[in-house]
């Protein structure tokens, strides 16, 4: 197996499993750990993987994106803490936009039930999870449904959003970096996110630390567009400070 074949195997496994470890890959491929580390370095420079201590995980882009099923099994404890912290930023908002994705879905389930609140979302999963809450009015955006995320996209969704003025938007992304802002693989998803930001008075980003420093295909926002960024302690305090210098308050939980 030459280097290109080995790197292709590593990438495919990382995308299938969600991550790879150096020692495991070295044993499976019968090569030295140093060889695997060099392969990971090559894949990272190509923007396909992100290195971690002892391994790597795949970067989402135009050619690869995890589905909702995978997202519901990765970093669940961290995502629950992120959602719990983000919902504390609700304040006196009466209307909120809840983005597609698993962490936003967790947040939606934590919205207070002791006051009237209107929730706008493109996510079928989120709408179904909270529609029975007596104090919540749920507005589901129309449009084409993406099978991968069970969220609506397209001109109908954007047109519907354009008719609203929303107090607070809770937004996720596939990548966030200080240089390239917030990105996502699919242009139609980026359009919905950008429109939600445009019609919202306040904006909160929430995402696992693995999203930081990563970039995908379509940019839809800048870091400075948000009043707050909520993530887990996997993002170092030094890096959190660098993001805070761009405008948002960074919450690490």
TrEMBL record:
<dbReference type="Pfam" id="PF00455">
    <property type="entry name" value="DeoRC"/>
</dbReference>
<dbReference type="InterPro" id="IPR001034">
    <property type="entry name" value="DeoR_HTH"/>
</dbReference>
<feature type="domain" description="HTH deoR-type">
    <location>
        <begin position="3"/>
        <end position="58"/>
    </location>
</feature>
<dbReference type="InterPro" id="IPR050313">
    <property type="entry name" value="Carb_Metab_HTH_regulators"/>
</dbReference>
<dbReference type="InterPro" id="IPR014036">
    <property type="entry name" value="DeoR-like_C"/>
</dbReference>
<keyword id="KW-0804">Transcription</keyword>
<keyword id="KW-0805">Transcription regulation</keyword>
<comment type="function">
    <text>Repressor of the lactose catabolism operon. Galactose-6-phosphate is the inducer.</text>
</comment>
<dbReference type="Pfam" id="PF08220">
    <property type="entry name" value="HTH_DeoR"/>
</dbReference>
<protein>
    <recommendedName>
        <fullName>Lactose phosphotransferase system repressor</fullName>
    </recommendedName>
</protein>
<dbReference type="InterPro" id="IPR036390">
    <property type="entry name" value="WH_DNA-bd_sf"/>
</dbReference>
<dbReference type="GO" id="GO:0003677">
    <property type="term" value="F:DNA binding"/>
</dbReference>
<keyword id="KW-0238">DNA-binding</keyword>
<dbReference type="InterPro" id="IPR037171">
    <property type="entry name" value="NagB/RpiA_transferase-like"/>
</dbReference>
<keyword id="KW-0678">Repressor</keyword>
